[in-house]
Design a protein that fits this description.
This protein is of the alpha/beta class and 207 residues long. It is built from 7 helices and 5 strands. Helix 1 packs across helix 6 (162-182). The structure holds flavin mononucleotide (FMN).
Length: 207
């Protein structure tokens, strides 16, 4: 990673103007170490519903823009809200578009991490797990770690308080882990690196 810079595409999975998840992506960008630049994709609302009849030459321009920016990024960071215990439709829709065409997805082997914020008690952990599952199905190199921000309306509103500082520490660590994953020199080896990391976690959990 030394001497070169990495770009992380931050994708907030909410269209809400005062989204807690957009705020999380903005904080991650602010906390990124030197050499890690953020591009923030704030156009999920411009992406039409997925329709297989609109693929190929008919692919909508907003989808082409999303794919181009994922392709140009070294890694992606998704901050997902949780709707009815699952992924918001706009985010799933965007991931479905980005998974196409089959065998040529810009998400294949793309280093990816998922975080989430919610005013509830669990910080969107169920939605985060589902986003990781979807990314894994598409073939992205997904970090296993989760970062949950519960009571987001309180915690994110009080920067400097202990809980907010802990979230910022964990967010910074997540960005570092993502940058490290993206810094593995050969793209073809990324899946091996993720499999290795999973095996280490499994062995550690098994004691
Ligand atoms: C349709 C709908 C369903 C929701 N379901 C959940 C849920 O299952 N779990 C949860 O923690 N919050 C749920 N919420 C509350 C969201 O976490 C809250 O609206 C949050 O602010 C959305 O994220 P944002 O601030 O990034 O827009 C739901 C909100 C909506 C609109």
């Amino acid at each position: 990673m030394e001497g070169s810079s990495l770009t992380v595409l931050g994708i907030p999975g909410s269209l809400r103007r005062d989204s807690f998840n957009l705020s999380l992506i903005e904080r991650a960008a602010a906390l990124a170490p030197e050499g890690v630049d953020f591009d923030i994709f704030g156009q999920l609302g411009a992406i039409p519903h997925f329709n297989q009849d609109s693929e190929g030459e008919r692919t909508p321009s907003a989808v082409l823009d999303l794919r181009r920016r994922i392709d140009a990024a070294d890694a992606i960071l998704i901050a997902t809200p949780e709707y009815n215990s699952s992924i918001p439709g706009v985010l799933k829709n965007a991931l479905d578009w980005a998974s196409r065409p089959p065998g040529e997805s810009v998400l294949a082997d793309k280093p990816a991490a998922v975080v989430g914020a919610s005013p509830g008690r669990y910080g969107a952990i169920r939605a985060q797990a589902e986003v990781r599952k979807v990314l894994g199905a598409i073939g992205a190199a997904v970090l296993e770690q989760e970062l949950a921000v519960p009571r987001a309306h309180e915690i994110l509103a009080a920067p400097g308080a202990t809980e907010a500082a802990e979230i910022e520490r964990d967010l910074a660590a997540m960005v570092m882990a993502l940058a490290r994953l993206a810094g593995v020199p050969a793209r073809a080896k990324l899946s091996d690196a993720v499999a290795y990391s999973r095996e280490c976690q499994r062995l550690a959990a098994a004691g």
